């Protein structure tokens, strides 16, 4: 039995994984999907004190709280930054890092290095208003279908702005830790271009494509669950 730890992206929360988590559990695995500080049901905590390190700590604390059980750590979109940093800190407990249509960091980057046109306007907005955090964009932009858009839009909450501005700290990758990148082929690729280039040029990464939009955990849970189970099979062999 594998324990999947599912890490959401910006504006989302653990709630977004419910459909995929149910399928993984039906296949006999344990699943947890923590909500990162300042988001979803934890939105009341949002402050400038929440940064990327806060979210890395959230993940590390969650996994260590499971005991010694090894995990497959899955990070979606923005979640690629804190999940990668957490996987490095967790060492052998994170058997397999899976990034789903996610940003792949290198040491010292900020998330907005992948979207440099947003650096100035986001910083100006944050400096002008202490209460400002990055507002969510409509779920349709993530490929969420019309039947789910009202539900998802009502769930999305502002992203703590400092999570986009703090440089990522990365320890060395643990020996033997597997890495898989799952690209959602229906999603636009401009912001993820650098990330895809990195994994496709690095033999330490396995690369998989699925025919789904960016929020595959909502729109295509069956397809995503199959890809995650296949990643688990690879980690076991």
UniProtKB/TrEMBL annotation:
InterPro entries: AB_hydrolase_1 (IPR000073), MES/HNL (IPR045889). Signal peptide: none annotated. It comes from the Bacteria. Residues 4-227 form the AB hydrolase-1 domain. It comes from Brevundimonas nasdae. The keyword Hydrolase applies. Pfam families: Abhydrolase_6. Keywords: Hydrolase. The keyword Hydrolase applies. GO terms for molecular function: hydrolase activity. This is Alpha/beta fold hydrolase.
